[in-house]
């Protein structure tokens, strides 16, 4: 039997319903330019108002659209209210995105994301003006803070940006998913495998300073997980990544940012005020924006590795100073204070750097200051008033350190 497509020139077929005045509907096929239709009595008639059925392609598209609406992954209920965005965007988002932009992007995403097919992903920017930059930061804000219902939406958005080959989302997913236990469902998921594949490709290019920095940090994390505090091979590999990141940034900077770390407390004005004046007024480093997103973490990681080397004291202090005095990183103030205290006669300078870290909420800095005040309270020659003063400060720093630890652990 010949196929219907063979009846029309060029392999096309046109199926029409023809309605007769004197009989039931009849089905006919057009071949060439005329439509021959026969009623039950054999008479031939023509109709100018015949209705053309949609083509198979159009019918399939309509079916997919109907299926898509019934197979949406998210709904408007998954999007936090505008008030959420008005609080988060000024505090954590980039300066060129508004709360309304992020809210609308999340709402539109929920109306598009379907299980039926992936064609909607390409429409985000083309048809709905949601570029990957906006998608990434909207997802980041959804996943900031304590995990909740909005995390699933944010994670899905990051996965979409990953599929569209957006490097910042690749780095964010690697940083988040790599925290899960080895062999867990997370690390065996397709999302994690895809992120690892794209991340490895970024690292191999040697051109992305953020990817190289993250590779170094992951190397150190794996070393700590197996208890190898003095694993020289891991330290050397991580240090190489950090050095390559600095070299890559010198050639071409990186301008995007991964997700804000939900395990760190927000950096408020108190940190900036405390760090505005250097100990002794001798700061030669000027506050500046990072040359790439993870620059502060890169210098901090370098400094920590170098500080364990017998001849790495000066290089470590230099790395910590960049991260602290130029990039204003609280953890770097802690490490800078600790390494300076190793040198006799620099106690005042070291303690002032520890103070800068402590007022930012760094738990370890608070506890170090508490211990120092407790030791001072036991010095000979102090009056009862002086002794009580140091004991009170020790108790206060200890309380602050405990509160800071609970705050960080609760995020």
From TrEMBL:
InterPro entries xrefs: TPR-like_helical_dom_sf
Which portions of the chain have biased composition (kind: Gly residues)? 402-411
Q: Where is this region: Disordered?
A: 253-290, 380-411
Question: What is the name attached to this protein's record?
Answer: Uncharacterized protein
């Amino acid at each position: 039997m010949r196929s219907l497509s063979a009846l029309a020139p060029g392999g096309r077929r046109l199926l029409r319903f023809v309605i007769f005045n004197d009989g039931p509907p009849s089905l006919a096929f057009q071949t060439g330019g005329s439509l021959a239709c026969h009623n039950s009595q054999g008479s031939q008639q023509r109709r100018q108002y015949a209705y053309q059925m949609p083509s198979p392609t159009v019918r399939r598209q309509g079916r997919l659209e109907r299926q898509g609406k019934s197979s949406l992954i998210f709904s408007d209920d998954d999007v936090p209210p505008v008030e959420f965005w008005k609080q988060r965007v000024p505090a954590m988002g980039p300066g060129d995105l508004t709360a309304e932009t992020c809210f609308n992007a999340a709402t539109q995403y929920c109306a598009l994301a379907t299980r039926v097919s992936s064609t909607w992903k390409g429409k985000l920017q083309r048809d709905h003006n949601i570029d990957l930059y906006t998608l990434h930061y909207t997802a980041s804000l959804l996943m900031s803070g304590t995990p909740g219902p909005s995390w699933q939406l944010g994670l899905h958005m990051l996965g979409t940006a990953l599929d569209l080959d957006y490097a910042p989302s690749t780095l964010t997913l690697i940083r988040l998913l790599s925290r899960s236990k080895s062999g867990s469902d997370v690390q065996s998921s397709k999302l994690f495998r895809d992120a690892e594949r794209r991340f490895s490709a970024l690292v191999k290019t040697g051109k992305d300073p953020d990817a190289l920095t993250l590779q170094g940090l992951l190397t150190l994390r794996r070393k700590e997980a197996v208890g190898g505090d003095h694993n020289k091979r891991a330290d050397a590999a991580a240090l190489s990544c950090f050095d390559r990141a600095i070299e890559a940034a010198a050639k071409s900077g990186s301008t995007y940012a991964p997700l804000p770390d939900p395990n760190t407390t927000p950096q408020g004005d108190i940190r900036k005020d405390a760090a505005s004046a250097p100990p002794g007024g001798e700061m030669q480093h000027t506050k500046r924006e990072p040359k790439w997103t993870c620059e502060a973490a890169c210098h901090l990681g370098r400094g920590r590795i170098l500080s364990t080397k017998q001849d790495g004291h000066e290089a470590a202090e230099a790395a910590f100073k960049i991260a602290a005095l130029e990039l204003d990183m609280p953890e770097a103030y802690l490490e800078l204070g600790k390494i300076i205290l190793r040198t006799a006669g620099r106690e005042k300078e070291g303690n002032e750097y520890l103070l800068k870290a402590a007022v930012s909420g760094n738990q370890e800095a608070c506890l170090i200051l508490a211990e120092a005040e407790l030791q001072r309270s036991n010095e000979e020659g102090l009056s009862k008033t002086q002794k009580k003063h140091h004991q009170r400060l020790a108790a206060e720093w200890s309380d602050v350190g405990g509160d800071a630890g609970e705050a960080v652990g609760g995020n």
